[in-house]
Design goal:
Blueprint lengths: L14 E3 L6 E3 L1 E4 L10 H13 L4 E3 L10 H12 L9 E6 L14 H15 L4 E6 L8 H13 L3 E7 L3 H14 L3 E5 L13 H8 L2 E4 L35 H17 L3 H10 L6 E4 L4 H8 L9 H15 L2
Parallel strand pairs: 3-4, 3-10, 4-5, 5-6, 6-7, 7-8, 8-9, 9-10
Antiparallel strand pairs: 1-2
Amino acid sequence: MNYLASEKRYETMTYQRCGRSGLQLPAISLGLWHNFGSEDVFSNAREILLYAFDRGVTHFDLANNYGPVPGSAEETLGRVLKQDWAAYRDELIISTKAGYTMWEGPYGDWGSKKYLVASLNQSLKRMGLDYVDIFYHHRPDPETPMEETMMALDQIVRQGKALYVGLSNYSAADTQKAESILRELGTPCLIHQPRYNLFDRWVEQGLTDVLDKRGIGCIAFSPLAQGLLSNRYLKNIPSDSRMAKAHFLKSSALTEAKRTALVGLNTIAQQRGQSLAQMAISWLLNNPTVTSVLVGASSAQQLGNSINALDNLSFSAEELKRIDNCCDPVVRG
């Protein structure tokens, strides 16, 4: 069946300017870290992607190693781009990254110009694209001079293989240094993608100040702490949960302090007419530094629930204080 995008796709989604650039991103972006690899069911992945676009999600975030197997999430997106979205490419923001291990040998990891350029060339082939909209360096490289890494990003933009560049998992100090190098080269840093959620607030210790000062956008990943910030773990560990299946979310992550915090947060969310997961997303978007929240999804229904967080983005001062009081024992460790 030929896909035809919903005519109402832009009516309810919120779009926010990314830093001081001309680019606007949807408040909710879709990450393809899980559930879009070759070991997953393609029809389900396609359903999620098409549903996302029908709801106004225009930004789809990947990395070279997303799968499993590594690279297969990009191939999945490439199939949908060819089969369903050929007519909509100019309405999409496609991002990918390189910086973690992708292939064996000295040229398949970290931040050398050799690795970054080769990796993006491979990513473009997997997705069937001439360019990506955003290309990230996925993590800082302690061995490669930062100037070389940033020169690679600059070269990629000048070659027309990416429109914008970004950083992920960089500290405040490294972000400031990288941004300065990129600015001197003439290729501004568009966006930073850090891990950020109610329980993990390291970005507030300097990074958000750098982003605001330098006019860099912010897209938060792991907004639900890999699923921990949901009502699934209020009492026990469900047998069908990520935690029970020994996924990236380990049972050791559910400490007594976190369980107590989850119960308190869930009460606040219910009083707001939201699920705990929705409140966690809304809380991030309440921060003016945050351009977009990057969510994952195992079904269209789950993605829809995340998007519905946009129905209530305002917080009273009392609510924010109660939320902080719940999270303080966890955040402070």
